[in-house]
Design brief:
Chain lengths: ~80, ~220, ~725, ~80
């Protein structure tokens, strides 16, 4: 079973990467751009047939390693 | 006194810091990250480098290693812990120090000599420095941009838990003298008990005049007594 | 699969070459075998166009332990210490994907050095980009610099020196050359020559993926509109694994387990196995089922031609497998016995219990084609100009234009992205003529520098080749080091064009003459041909990487002004040579005429005496005079300190431009205490060395009587801004 | 209008980051894990009411800056 995990910085945490990307895009002439924030993306495949169980496991991986929950949020989706 | 340097597969300042520790007379041991036990230590150092390539978030993977559990235990018993550069990032990821180290503001790796002001010399790490002493150390990092919430920032300032701030040649703490975008120019912080110090600059690189100066040596000499 | 003409050509093999293969085998090769031939016979591995010229280079002096022919060159620096170094190009991959191309270039050259038992102690690079107005240049610059930094910083080797140049000749073909320098114990050097029969052949490091299949052929093919299609072959570097591999190899090298060891560089498993067998005059049998693979269903063809990074091949002594495996397990790396040495002198590959390839080692190596390609000599251009434009441009604006140009701007923006201090032995960081690295725990140190001058080489390849060796030698002298040996990376266009082959042959002649005269042999190197696009070749760009020795490291001599009031001398004769100078190129847009001639006798004499002056502490600071001339030298000595100069109008040449911008060779600028002048003068005169007093060091301002006055701060700004604003 | 952009490495391209993360999770005892690959994630907001036009703009941003199309693929979704 395959899942995607997206990790984003919490709203009030500074996002230096997003900021620089945003500025660069604006300099390149993308006038319509309002804002951009950068995060991480994982594709995780696990050997587990029960979706609820699988999701629970992925959730655990996130909390244990993939995500720094002090500054980041995450969401999990089956793909 | 006994010191231990924790070695991760991607540590690369481990030898450098061992040289500095031995120069200040510590009896030092290198401790491989897979070990489950720490040798008897008065000081534990987590050196700089790229512990696991810094591939997920710097320090994140190292923070999950066996030996770090022992380091956390030792810290609770009051053992002195120093984290330099990647070591600071690891201390943050274990939660021994609060906040986050984000990408440098300009998104470039930054390696250069910077001026620092020693803000707190009433602790085990900095007692050989004068209060507000101006020193020059070397930085070399990609993610040294210290960030924390407003409340914690205020408490760091109030409780005098900031060890060093980036400043200019004259000692003025200005935006222009902030190399990486750290909040309030923070370069190093203590925990509340002041037995843990995390800092981005490398004191072990400044222990010889032939390489630049000896401003880092005072830190190791403070620790050894 | 039927081997068609199309398949043969796709493999970069000429029809004659395919004919020769059939003769050598007495049969048609199968598809896998054809792939192996194409990898081994291409320019990058076989040196088929360059070998007869390379053979003429001097390769020995009393310090050389190992010259060309191994993974890297080895020199003796006294005691039980040896220095191992080499330079290599990664031009084409870096143009396609600058970050990964440059990063894997660094990774590759590091492996060449630690394969031989050395712990790498310094990295250098020479990078050439197109015109700054070209729309690709900025992205390429950013990517290459962060790729070089990203890899070296992570492995933990200081990147201490290099050179960066911009010229439109590189618009469609940048150059990325990386050099690594390592330190080994003289009695613990490892070579690639296999020995003994029935010994285990071990694969260690990363798994094999489909990366860079045909990378070696790509590196030897000109670019055209279809290059985009070759993109997926770019490899991704993994510096963390490289660090593990380095530590594991160095740990295994502590005892006597290794018979021979070879990194898998260009053409991966193919070239490493063939090379080891060839040198040992042995055969090799590999079981491809055992090769650790990253992807499913990989074919023998893919395994043999993959250029996945961070891999090595080792031949072990009997019975050492378990011990060795433990070490690689500790570092979480694959360790698999994939074959054995044999006495067949053939490379035999097995897959699914079948022999899938059986090729004589000699056919792949010593029988590879050698070409004596036609080449044309290039005459020394005549100097037939009288520049009338001098009057149109003011001296100070010409000076500002040069030092604010991309080529002359301060390279801090670049060097700040490289960790220069890790390992804590960098005594002199980049910014000086050479960098100085101390041998850990010892009093001695080495100096290292890389140099090139494509502009001179284009104008007259022989003079250019000679000059570049001299300049590199001079750069080591300027930090007080005794130059010992060089490595070279020869970046040229299409060797099938007699004009280009002429540039190559004559640059080599020039390099040879200087190396011989200066007792400065070549111990390793790399040739990169086919640098160009659609029949437009790059300027000939040989890059020289030099290593010198400082026996007793005291406080190293400085490259910036030290004391207000001290005297500034220029050493060596100035003839006012301006063709091919920075002034003519950057300010007047004039690119005809010959390059300055390097007079080897003067070069050596001046250098040896400068070294004496440094050793006797007569010199406060020193910088060589090269591209940009005396005025740029003075400016750099000022900018790096907070002191300026007061320069007198010259007596010897009446034209200020000629005096200050000339690029005559063999010259230095030195700062000495006034009281020492008589002594210095005496030594210089006794040795027939021309010198002139240029002026004195003063505070705050950089000043030339009535022509130029600027504060050091402003000068610094002008010189420092370009990169940050680009 | 807000879009998400996920950027993933092409199939045969080495993913050193994913490799280390995968190994760590396995060492931490996540036995069911088959594989993990790491990518990037962006949240982009632009001032454009026409969805097709907006998507075209985002697409351009990806090709020009956000994505290294030599080694990465990307997909855009409205959020
Ligand atoms: N320009 C050169 N001058 C001297 N030696 C060279 C030159 N080019 C290549 N060599 C030598 O030829 C050998 C093969 O080089 P190369 O194929 O680049 O090595 P690798 O297999 O490590 O890529 C090396 O020993 C190298 O030092
Ligand atoms: Mg090699």
């Amino acid at each position: 079973m395959k899942f995607s995990v997206t990790v984003t910085l919490k709203k009030d945490v500074l996002d230096p990467q997003g900021k620089v990307v945003e500025q660069t895009l604006k300099n390149m002439g993308t006038n319509s751009l309002i804002g951009i924030r950068q995060g991480k993306y994982f594709e995780v495949e696990i050997n587990e047939k029960d979706e609820t169980k699988a999701e629970k496991q992925i959730n655990e991986m996130c909390n244990k390693l993939l995500v720094n929950t002090i500054i980041e949020n995450f969401s999990i989706k089956r793909i | 006194m006994n010191s231990s340097v924790i070695v991760f597969p991607g540590s690369n300042c481990d030898r450098d810091i061992a040289v500095a520790l031995e120069k200040s007379k510590f009896k030092n041991k290198m401790v491989w990250h897979k070990e489950n036990e720490l040798p008897k230590s008065d000081l534990i150092v987590i050196p700089g480098g790229f512990s696991y390539g810094d591939y997920l978030r710097s320090g994140a993977i190292a923070a999950k290693s066996n030996i770090l559990k022992e380091v956390v235990k030792a810290s609770k018993k009051g053992c002195l812990i120093l984290g330099v550069c990647n070591g600071f990032q690891i201390l943050i990821e274990t939660g021994l120090l609060k906040g986050a180290l984000l990408r440098n503001q300009n998104l470039r790796f930054l390696s250069k000599d910077v001026y620092l002001k020693v803000l707190n010399n009433e602790n085990k790490f900095c007692n050989k420095y004068k209060s507000n002493e101006l020193i020059k150390l070397n930085i070399a990092h990609n993610e040294g941009n210290y960030f924390t919430d407003q409340k914690h920032l205020e408490s760091l300032e109030e409780k005098n838990l900031i060890a060093f701030k980036y400043c200019d040649k004259k000692g003025d703490i200005l935006n222009d003298s902030n190399p990486n975008g750290s909040l309030n120019n923070i370069a190093g912080i203590f925990n509340e008990e002041k037995n843990i110090l995390g800092m981005m600059p490398h004191p072990e690189r400044m222990i010889e005049d032939i390489l630049t100066n000896q401003d880092g040596m005072k830190l190791f000499n403070s620790l050894f007594n | 699969m039927k081997i068609t003409k199309e398949i043969i050509n796709k493999h970069g093999l000429k029809n004659d070459e395919f004919k020769k293969i059939k003769e050598l085998l007495n049969r048609e090769p199968n598809f896998l075998e054809l792939g192996i031939f194409s990898a081994m016979w291409n320019e990058h591995c076989s040196y088929k166009s360059s070998k007869i010229h390379l053979k003429t280079l001097p390769v020995k002096n009393k310090n050389v332990i190992q010259g060309p022919g191994e993974n890297a060159g080895v020199i003796d620096i006294g005691g039980n210490d040896a220095i191992i170094f080499k330079i290599e190009s990664h031009n084409h991959p870096s143009f396609i994907e600058p970050y990964q191309g440059a990063a894997t270039g660094v990774g590759g050259i590091l492996r060449d050095v630690f394969t031989m038992g050395a712990r790498p102690i310094a990295l250098l690079n020479s990078i050439h980009f197109g015109d700054v107005k070209n729309k690709k240049t900025k992205t390429l610059l950013n990517g290459v610099v962060s790729g070089i930094g990203g890899y070296g910083n992570c492995v933990g080797i200081p990147t201490v020196a290099g050179e960066t140049k911009f010229h439109k000749t590189y618009n469609e073909n940048i150059l990325v050359n990386a050099m690594a320098v390592g330190h080994a114990k003289k009695d613990k050097i490892f070579y690639s020559k296999a020995k003994g029969i029935n010994k285990s052949v071990v694969y260690v490091g990363s798994k094999t993926g489909r990366d860079g299949i045909h990378g070696a052929s790509m590196a030897s093919a000109e670019f055209d509109e279809n290059s985009e299609e070759k993109k997926p072959t770019v490899q991704v570097g993994d510096p963390f694994t490289e660090k593990l591999l380095m530590e594991a190899c160095l740990e295994l090298m502590k005892d006597n387990s290794i018979i021979s060891i070879q990194d898998m560089g260009a053409a991966g498993l193919t070239s490493s196995s063939v090379e080891m067998a060839f040198k040992g005059d042995l055969g090799l049998e590999l079981n491809l089922d055992k090769v650790p693979c990253r992807e499913e269903n990989m074919t023998p063809y893919e395994m043999m031609l993959s250029e996945s990074q961070e891999r090595m091949l080792i031949i072990l002594e009997d019975g050492k497998e378990d011990k060795a495996k433990k070490i690689f397990d500790k570092w979480d790396l694959d360790f698999v016995v994939i074959g054995k040495t044999t006495d067949t002198k053939n490379l035999i590959l097995k897959f699914h219990n079948e022999v899938v390839a059986n090729l004589p080692i000699a056919a792949l190596s010593s029988n590879a084609p050698q070409y004596e390609r036609k080449w044309k000599e290039k005459k020394l251009p005549i100097k037939n100009i009288k520049i009338k434009d001098f009057k149109k441009i003011k001296f100070d604006s010409a000076f500002f234009k040069v030092i604010s140009s991309p080529n002359f701007s301060n390279k801090k923006w670049i060097t700040e992205q490289y960790d220069q201090m890790v390992m804590c032995d960098t005594v002199q960081k980049s910014g000086a003529d050479s960098s100085i690295i101390r041998i850990h725990g010892k009093k001695k140190a080495i100096a290292v520098a890389v140099d090139s001058s494509a502009i001179y080489c284009k104008s007259h390849p022989f003079s250019g080749g000679k000059q570049i060796v001299c300049e590199n030698w001079r750069n080591l002298i300027s930090v007080g080091a005794m130059p010992i040996a060089i490595t070279n990376c020869l970046n040229f266009g299409n060797p099938e064009d007699p004009k280009i082959m002429g540039e190559f042959a004559e640059c080599i002649k020039g390099i040879k003459s200087a190396c011989e005269f200066l007792n400065y042999p070549v111990v390793s190197g790399n040739v990169s041909f086919y640098n160009g696009t659609n029949n437009k070749n790059i300027y000939p760009t040989p890059v020289i990487g030099g290593v010198g020795l400082i026996n007793e490291l005291k406080d190293p001599v400085k490259n910036n002004f030290q004391k207000e009031g001290s005297l500034i001398l220029s050493i060596g004769k100035n003839f006012g040579h301006l063709t091919q100078s920075a002034l003519f190129l950057e300010v007047f847009n004039y690119d005809d005429g010959p390059p300055p001639e390097a007079n080897l006798l003067n070069e050596r004499n001046n250098g040896e005496n400068i070294l004496k002056l440094i050793e006797n502490n007569f010199i406060n600071s020193i910088h060589d005079i090269s591209s940009g001339g005396l005025i740029v030298t003075l400016a750099e000595m000022s900018i790096n300190s907070s002191l300026g100069v007061k320069i007198k109008k010259p007596k010897s040449l009446s034209n200020l431009f000629e005096f200050f911008f000339s690029e005559d060779q063999g010259r230095y600028c030195i700062e000495i205490d006034k009281e020492k002048y008589d002594n210095v003068k005496k030594i210089l005169q006794e040795n027939n060395i021309f010198h002139e007093i240029i002026g004195v060091v003063q505070r705050d301002n950089f000043e030339l009587e009535k022509e130029l006055k600027i504060s050091i701060n402003d000068l610094y700004k002008i010189n420092n801004e370009w990169y940050y604003n680009y």
